[in-house]
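Help! Submission page says 'invalid entity' but I think these are all valid:
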Amino acid sequence: MDSFWSVLGGAFALVFALDPDLLEIIGLSMRVTLTAVLFACLIGLPLGAAVGAFRFPGRTLLAVILNALMGLPPVVVGLVVYLLLSASGPLGPLRLLYTPGAMIIAQMIIVMPIVAALTRQVVEDIDREYAEQFASLGVGALDRLLSLLWDARYSLLTVTLAGFGRAVAEVGAVLIVGGNINHVTRVMTTTIALETSKGNLQLALALGVILLLIAFSVNACVMALRASAVRAAYA
Amino acid sequence: MNRRFFAAILAAALIGSATVQSASGEDRFIVVQSTTSTQNSGLFDEILPEFQEKSGIEVRVVAVGTGQAIRNAANGDGDVLLVHSKPSEEKFVADGLGVSRADVMYNDFVIVGPDADPAGIAGGRDVIAALKAIAKGAAPFASRGDDSGTHKAELRLWKAADIDAGAESGSWYRETGSGMGATLNTGIGMDAYIMTDRATWIAFGNKGSHQILVEGDPRMFNQYGVILVSPKIHPHVKAEMAQTFIDWLLSREGQQAIAGYKVDGQQLFFPNANDGSS
């Protein structure tokens, strides 16, 4: 094997020689991950906020379950989604197996509990400060939920980024339900797994570096947006 | 203000789902359940564009171990099965899950091992003698252990050598439970002997000090077969397009494409569709 440093050097050389196939793979990675995170947030944010803000029977149990589901093994999620979407499975007629749609569903299931569990904690903390005010103003349940989410928006941005991080690095589930089909369901992580299995460690590592750079860019963009929003709020 | 914020999120979600919808739709494709050796060796990347250009049919390859490929195909998650474990393939057809089976091509298995060669098997042609020497010296041997075609072939050879390698699992016999490439990476990392198909080995990029030690034994012949998944059991199977692909693979043109694929000047697969025995 080449030395670690020569592999790393070669990796950076490849980063700056972006070819169309690589761009296609990066594009699909982003489309799948961002869509999955979006849907995970649409469910996870209100769900987490509701568990954090409202008192109801079974609330603690639900919170524990959400926390536990943060550790969902992606391969198990992939297997369950495969069995559901398989032609012999209950959702087989949708013909979603081996499409980006299947990958989005799997990643959404993995990311949603992370978003919900972290949102619950954030909202619960804020709600403690506002509970009396809400009560004295007689604010309705929906408005209370939306106000809490809005007030916690900067913390929830980080929650979203945690979900993004998990989704963008995920390989086990998308490999099973996507099938790593060239030009159809091949994303960054499955390409890295494929190149590793071909013994092309240098190329695999180079792709890893690119993935890291993309994740860094997305985080930087979100943080920049947040900073300008904060400035606008105080201007 | 916050209502507008949530309305914006909802709008973004709708746009997101719309782009996902537009991704599917196109229907001129078939799914082939196949094995890692055909994909990792680069064969499909070489021959599929030729077929697609001629027929307008896109071939989507899902590359997993033979065992998993057969199970996926049995579930109806593929139109064509292209694997290498003749007994399992014949059972697949006998069970009515596949229409018929045809020979496509062959290559062979080889035993690779470290330069040091602790069991002293280098240069041998008799694979059974080599396995006996490895077991006798308790030299590390990395097995796929994943129910793949290569794994099944390896188990048949251990059986022929009258050695219960599974009983030594965890000591010198190490089952990685992974694909060929991952097993090679692992085996090379621990200076183990590994049985691999020649195509994957030639195309493999991380050989270390390992080289081919045992080759040429007729018992290491590795036949690939192709099967159309039964449209009777799974009505959604695109039988017509799938049959077009199979016909092409077995045609003079397809066979020439397979023979023409070389890595480092070496031919990886040898077409034999017309040798009878299909």
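Support: the input was valid. A stray whitespace character was the problem, and the output above is from the cleaned input. The radius of gyration of chain A is 21 Å.
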